[in-house]
């Protein structure tokens, strides 16, 4: 498989203001990935104006789950996955803000309040973190 | 206070679900195999009044009663309730929906008293509203409501005309994060200073919770969603003459300490459109109420909020508690009826 050369990636530039439902964009037609044992995500370096979000790493999801369990005082064996909704787990608005604060500290990011309010599941939190970490 | 007895129909005999014969619901539980007792109707609040209704989930133990409440809900709301993880969360979610439906039904708008028939919608920002039937000649009343719940308290505030936001929280709620670190991140500089000036950590914790509930109540009253009013864009100010009384539990009937909101984009003008009340309920919870100001008493001075508070177990019993120890005004200008 050909590997990406940084200068030669050419693909349609996508709006960076994709809404949440379109965040996982597949550009498999245009891009070939390097064959290597490493995670794909760090090796994708893209031109400005293009944003590709693959689903967040399991490691990120696991860290979010840990923070959520701690904030909501859930038992360690409580079933919390990417699909789990904060509200359904018992998080009220104060819990949600505390969870976001915990994520900011854990990942060294800053989450705008507007974005914080739109996070409702573990997966959404993990995806947002990855986006912010990449910057 | 007056305790209004529910009308209890002649019950067919059925087994009590409770092992403890001294349970106050032991006898009542036999009635729930029949239809729920009728809701006691209430007059709509006048333009200047605010009605506060609340349920204490721990006092609602009857499984048959909770099933009957579930039957009041449309399928979509039942699904929503069942989507919560665990009995306790499901129960408070159920009681929240039950409280709002039964409360609004009591006002018998257009002769209706059936909580099942109410429909709700959300405005474009997501704030829940009643969707009244559009019938010829029927002008829906400008009934406003807002709900808030924790696992230990479910509350609903109702007004005629005034936008209302309400938030409840346990007094002893602790944040996982350090209060000042949290406040520096999410509150305004004035509020951080206010908290920082409190030497006692217990009082500081309580003050934080009071501020949190007031800020939530304001945003909920605005009804435009939290992202339109991030917490660090407005300051809740308590006037200095009232600083001490803000921290003390004071007279039940009338209290007068000023709480006001100031938005950062117009710092010179206190935003006069909103007035606040802060209550301590049953000694265990803070209830913050934010209301759109309807009229002023000359020179911009607001009339006190006229509050009627009732504790309820819908279709079982109602208890008027305003003016009692159960509802203590600790902030804002409130007269209890």
TrEMBL record, chain A:
InterPro entries found in the cross-reference section: ACP, ACP-like_sf, ACP_chloroplastic, PKS_PP-bd, PP-bd_ACP, Ppantetheine_attach_site
Single annotated GO MF: acyl carrier activity
Ranges for domain Carrier: 58-133
One GO location term (cellular component): chloroplast
Lineage: superkingdom: Eukaryota
Family of this protein: Belongs to the acyl carrier protein (ACP) family.
Function description: Carrier of the growing fatty acid chain in fatty acid biosynthesis.
Family matches, as HAMAP family: Acyl_carrier
The protein's name in its UniProt record: Acyl carrier protein
Species of the source: Linum tenue
UniProtKB/TrEMBL annotation, chain B:
Record-annotated 4'-phosphopantetheinyl transferase domain positions: 164-250
GO cellular component, as recorded: cytosol
Ranges where the 4'-phosphopantetheinyl transferase N-terminal domain occurs: 67-155
Keywords, ordered alphabetically: Transferase
GO biological process, one term: lysine biosynthetic process via aminoadipic acid
InterPro entries linked: 4-PPantetheinyl_Trfase_dom, 4-PPantetheinyl_Trfase_dom_sf, AASDHPPT_N, P-Pant_transferase_sf
Keyword Transferase: yes
Full protein name: holo-[acyl-carrier-protein] synthase
